[in-house]
Amino acid sequence: MWRYSGTIQPVDERGQIAIDKTTADIDGKRAFHRSDHYSSWRPSAYHYNVVLDVINHDLTSTIDEMVQLYRDMKARGVREDTITLNTILNGCRRLGDWASFISVEKQMCRLDEAGVTRMDAHSWSTLIQGYKEMRDWESVDRYTARATSACHEWFSAQRKKGAEDEKEEAESSGIKPTVQLWSTIIATYADRNMVPQMLAARRVMSGLGLRATAYVYGPMFAALHKARQTLVRKGRDPVPVMRLALSEYEAMQSEGVEPNEVILTNIMLTIGFGSKDQRQSEGTGDNRETPDE
């Protein structure tokens, strides 16, 4: 199993890690030179980001490894960038180290305000997903609102600049919206049974010029199916939810999105069975939350 040794190794002119040819194999592995011995080569944020990403995707990694590497980076005077912080933040989320997650979040916000680094759509998506997993809905709503505002700001700036200046979009205010960010926002609303907000977010996503995918529509139809069940259990008319499901299905078709088996199942369960017997079979209990109105 690969493990970070505490030092970024130097590379040769071919971009490969430099190996000390005078050393023998140790347990079948080569011993590498420390980069301190190579005055002509110093690691950059790019090199650290690669190793941080490897640690982040290693299922047996620990937060201590990421912290150790980040400290080594700072000790060498290498400035972190947005990718560095995003990778560490996502690593904290994946490992469930919420104290470190909040600490990195605060540092990201400070550096963003100071103009040292810039939070992007991936930053906002990870923050929303992390606080969702912590079930801190106040923070989820705060970052969703800030991300939405930043996306609108970017979109408005792009429209003012015109198509000829699109190459300079990285310098625009706000953040460039992405499908990943809006998939996270929509899925979060869906998981919370916030149907009106979920549908509104999908329309905002479309208005920002983003094409929805099955990853967007999947949670939506699952939420609509759940909303229908809730209405039936409370003895209320499920037809409005069925119409919403039909409308979203038409929107999905118009965008050319191919529904997967899960989506088709939820569509059928939402709009395909409207008989009294079926409604009764879905139960009459009041132990489910009603969709927000």
Task: Please describe the structure with a list of short key phrases separated by commas or semicolons.
293 residues, mainly alpha, disordered N terminus, elongated, 0% strand
Q: What does this molecule look like?
A:
- With 293 residues, the protein is mainly α.
- The protein contains twelve helices and no strands.
- The protein has helices at residues 45-57, 63-75, 82-95, 98-114, 121-134, 137-161, 179-191, 195-207, 214-233, 239-254, 261-271, 276-281.
- Helix 3 runs antiparallel to helix 4 (98-114), helix 3 (82-95) packs parallel to helix 5 and helix 5 runs parallel beside helix 7 (179-191).
- The radius of gyration is 24 Å and the shape is elongated.
SSE topology sketch:
Blueprint (H helix, E strand, L loop, with lengths): L44 H13 L5 H13 L6 H14 L2 H17 L6 H14 L2 H25 L17 H13 L3 H13 L6 H20 L5 H16 L6 H11 L4 H6 L12
Helix pairs in contact: 1-2, 1-3, 3-4, 3-5, 5-6, 5-7, 7-8, 7-9, 8-9, 9-10, 9-11
Give a short overview:
With 293 residues, this protein is mostly helical. It is 60% helix and 0% strand. Helix 3 (82-95) packs parallel to helix 5 (121-134), helix 7 (179-191) runs antiparallel to helix 8 and helix 9 (214-233) packs parallel to helix 11 (261-271).
Number of helices: 12
Shape: elongated
Rg from alpha-carbon coordinates: 24 Å
In round numbers, the mean pLDDT is 80
Helix content estimate: 55-70%
- Share in β-strands: under 5%
Structural class: mainly alpha
Tell me about the largest β-sheet: none
Order of helices and strands: HHHHHHHHHHHH
Give the CA-CA distance, first to last residue: 52 Å
Number of strands: 0
As residue ranges, the low-confidence spans are 1-35, 274-293
